[in-house]
Amino acid sequence: DGRVPEPLHAGVAPPSAAERAAWKELPDGGQVLSEAGLLVADADAADAFYERTTALPSVDVHGLSAGEPHAVKTNIPAAATATLSLRLAPGQSPEVVGESLDALMRAAVPPGAELEITHHGAASAAVMDPEHPVLVAAADGFEQALERRPVPVRTGGSIPIVAAFTGRGIPTVLTGFGLPDDGIHGPNERLAMDHLEFGVRAAMGMFDALARCRGQGTLHMAARHADTHRQRGTTPMAELWGAETRKAVDNFPVSGEPIPAGVVRWLGRIKGSAARANAELGKLDAALADKIAAAGDAIAAGDHDDQFPVDVFQTGSGTSSNMNTNEVIANIAGEPVHPNDHVNMGQSSNDVFPSAVHLAALEAASNDLLPALDHLASELEAKAEEYKDIVKAGRTHLMDAVPVTLGQEFGGFAAQVRQAHARVSDSLPRLSQIPLGGTATGTGLNTHPDFAEKVRALMSEASGLEIRPPADPFEAQANRDGLVEASAALKVVAVSMTKIANDLRWMGSGPRVGLGELFLPELQKGSSIMPGKVNPVIPEVVAQVSAQVIGNDVAITAGGMQGNFELNVMIPLMARNLMQSIGLLTSASNLLADKCINGIQPNLEMLERHAENTLATATALNPYIGYDKAAEIVKEATSSGRPLREVAREHGVEEETLSEALNLREIAAGSDAGSK
Question: 564 Cβ partners below 8 Å, 6+ apart?
Answer without folding.
Answer: none
